[in-house]
Amino acid sequence: MKLCVIGTGYVGLTTGACLASIGHEVICTDSDSSKIEGLQHGRLPIYEERLPEVIAAAAGSGRLTFSHDGNAAIQAAEVIFICVGTPPDADGKANLAAVEAVARQVAHQARGYRLVVGKSTVPVHTGEQIRRVLTTHSRGQLEFDVASNPEFLREGTGVYDFFHPDRIVVGCDSERATSRLHQIYSPVLEGKFSCGWHAKAAAQCGWKPPAWVATSVASAELIKHASNSFLSMKISYANAIADICELAGADSAEVLRGLGLDRRIGADFLRPGIGFGGFCFPKDLSAFIEMSTELGYDFQLLREVQAINARRIEQFMRKVREELWVLQGKTIGVLGLAFKAGTDDTRLSPAYAVVRELLRLGARLRAYDPQAMPRAHDELPAGVHYCERAEDVAEGAEAVLILTEWPDFRAAKWTEMARRMTRPLVLDGRNLFEPGELEQFGFEYRGIGRRSPVPPHTRPHSATGN
User: Fold this and answer.
1) Residue 285 contacts by C-beta under 8 Å, 6 or more apart in sequence?
2) Global pTM?
3) In the prediction, which pLDDT does 205 show?
4) What are the residue numbers of the active site?
5) Superfamily of 223-310 according to CATH
6) Would 217 disulfide with which of 171, 297, 452, 455, CB 3.0-4.6 Å?
7) Are 446 and 465 in contact (CB under 8 A)?
């Protein structure tokens, strides 16, 4: 099927490449001409695991192309996916200017029948507005259906998530639209991966067909916001439990493990830390609260989720000050700048918030991140020394802060790091390590919601390397 994907951010680029990978003819276009030019030359604007291989294979087969000419792409496509950004306005509401602009463009350029699919995260009733714009501006020359097909791609595992989703949600108000979307996704629904790593992964993990969830357009739009808000709530709940554990002298890891083993609850997202960030959860949470208010419901529960998350940086910085007292002039190592592992995305990163506060207090920072440092060079204030290796952040440092849960950090040479530090102290803002793991290398270790052990600097080092 001939598809057009408008918007080549995390969602659009991953979606377009993966749709081409399962056999469709896909044209990706974007209003940012530099993005398209880079993609035409094999340069990706984001880091996403396995995405370069998928794009290379799909482009090499001729099924995936990148075009500056959005009008021609719309004219050639049978189905148009809207994957543009919906950034928050100052009041927290989603800014839908890009969505409306695309709807107008489709109305002016498309003739005959088109299925217009909203994949951007939008407030409920956006589908109605898109339908109104298409009707008004096409002047009766366009036959169309409007559908909602929310994405559930996690940054860092987006490619895997496309091929192995829990569910595929489609909101349609006609059988024609539902049938066409089912046809588009049939290779994923049936597990028919023609080649590549995803076929091997499906065989290894015991592939199970995803649920096909066909709803109204309004219900599909709400499913996306409700899902992200619920996951945000689980994170904030875990952080609140961690605070209680510290006050009670309990271990949050033990408490949350006992909680997560309940099949009605589940362990996913019950990990305390310095809070959630990125572009999706904070934005979608704010938009859902504002949307609910407009509908006449005061979502106080989600307001408290926001408040708990907002306090995480302040509480983590309190731990830093308790350990180091005056921060001015002290060298501190920072491991992690991205908002989560597996991505170079630094938007609303909690790590950035910590770094900016440390700089404000006069600390000298040595930082390392496996993927996000090129962005950080341009986005963070002066005063950060970027290191080539994780181990280098330890040089002369009075503490190392773990701010992103990259698995790479577990494999660092911690014995070497302990020798290079003024004080071998680790403040783990992501609970990447278990209590006792770093103490064997001579470190003092402080996690989130965990009992403070006897300072290990009173004991000799028990390791020679790792």
Assistant:
1) 228, 229, 232, 302, 305, 306
2) 0.89
3) 58
4) 280
5) N-(1-d-carboxylethyl)-l-norvaline Dehydrogenase; domain 2 (1.10.1040.10)
6) 171
7) no
